[in-house]
Write a structure and sequence with these properties.
With 610 residues, the protein is α+β, with helices and mostly antiparallel strands. It folds into 3 domains: 33-389, Aldolase class I (TIM Barrel, Alpha-Beta Barrel), CATH 3.20.20; 396-481, Sandwich (Immunoglobulin-like); 484-607, Jelly Rolls (Sandwich). An 8-stranded parallel sheet has the order 14-13-12-10-4-3-2-15. Strand 3, helix 4 and strand 4 form a beta-alpha-beta unit. The radius of gyration is 25 Å and the shape is globular.
Amino acid sequence: MRSSSYTVLPAAAARSGRRSIRTVVALAFTASVATAFPAAHADTPAEPAGAAAIAAKPYMGWSSWSMQSSKYPGLNPDGDYSYLTEKNVLKQTDALASKLKKYGYDHVNIDAGWWMDKSWKTQFDQYGRQTPDPVRFPHGMKSVADHIHSKGLKAGIYLPVGLEKGAYGDGKTPIWNAPDCTTADIVYSDLRTTNGWDNAYKIDFGNACAQKYIDSQAQLFADWGYDFLKLDGVGPGSFKSGDNYNNVADVAAWNKAIASTGRPIHLEVSWSLDIGHAADWKKYSNGWRIDTDVECYCNTLVTWENSVDDRWDDAPAWSRKAGPGGWNDLDAIDVGNGEMDGLTKAERQSYMTLWAMNKSPLFTGDDLTKLDSYGVSLLTNKEVIAVDQNASPVARPVTSVGDQQVWATKNADGSHTVALFNLGDSPASVTAHWASLGFTGKATVRDLWNKSNLGTHKNKITAALPAHGSRLFTIKPGGSALATTSYEAEAAANTLSGNASVAGCDACSGGKKVGNLYTGGKVRFNDVTVNKDGIYTVKVAYVSGDARSVTVSSNSGNGTSQKLPSTGDWSTVETVSVQLALKAGTNTITFDSGSGYAPDIDRIVVPKTV
């Protein structure tokens, strides 16, 4: 077997049993990876007017899907997914405007089903475009958008990617504003299917009529006054593979179509998308889902295990992919009503904390007319919202990613935003060491959730956290930069054993790293020198296309297994810190793959003293 140094692996594996059900039962949808990208879309697309402003910051708002998909008593009394109606959308619009708008929540997003009756029969106009169900939306979609706008909010709508089977008709359905085009012209003659549920035929963008069809859909939404489109079931990703499920051309076509309408429309693509195409999502859209649905499809909106907690594993790989113009979407933040959400108070706070640290869009799926006081305090904490909305980089773990984790990002004013997480099922203490942030000595600490100053702390802060609990701080250094020594993994003085070998690495310090750390491969750093005995915060620079574990030890001590988060690909370097006991004088530090596969190691950075 070859080393991970030379083999790119996916950042996160699909989880059986946690597929998005948006929805296998309700929509009978079915779709994922790779048709050759038509030359017509190879050029950088025209950007819609106002596009930069659309995604300058992660969007905030409300989405209908969480309540549609839940079996919580009373939410869907007329059958599964029946919650989605004009009456309910307007009720949530009014609640958003009165309760959350002033905190930045300004989107009302209508999700799947608006063009389906309560038996989930689809409805289309004479041009094969989705048309609202007259029972769900008796006044039509424009009327709903007008009401949303009247409250000073933005209106969002939803579609699955591809040509829905019901829109095809007999292949003779005309395309709006394209006299010579029919639905038979825009799909492959073998009627191959696409999207996360295979409910649509794959569109053939080699035929100019295909773009005309997407143009017609985009123009319809623009005429109705919509400001946001969620395009769902998009691949590569969404747990499908094969040429039929590569929808990059579809996303590019939507980008182009939106630009042609002249109306700024935020384009969000979904779900559990392939990180290998992150550049495509960033090029053609304003946001992308990085994981499966957060909803549990049970008698609450979500549960911790299915699948809120997945994001701590999956978000790090995407951290460098987001920024103004396009953001990593972790899905809905259902933290507003503990009974309905199905979470403890500690879980709700951790949920919101992680979303803010990742600068995910902050959109809730809660019933805004029934928020509890704690939910309101979470959703309206201005200091936490600012973590999501400010210009600092997306946070990453600065420790290994076990049950206790520390995440951080550096702000423009030199302060650090630091989150402590206890993902374990019992209480535990978690410590953030200033050395992992690059300084030593004193720092002032502010508790963002409690809106209180905690005074000055020296070298670290420790918090006792409940199961699944968290704290969120702003740390302002008052000490000095940490004096350190760097040691390269490829240095001739080190000892490589097993399969370990030196490999080129453009992003690595010195242009090299040590890879092939698998089934017993080791790299031992020799001659690591410090001034006194103590526990040192050692930074490890590494490369790993997926999350991998490595056993780290110092001198002849017993090693501890450290799981390092994905760096997103095999050409990006990230760092985490580990705590190691070192003695005054010369030491060794060893990275051992054991029986598995370890990350590639670039270098270590060791404080000169404690």
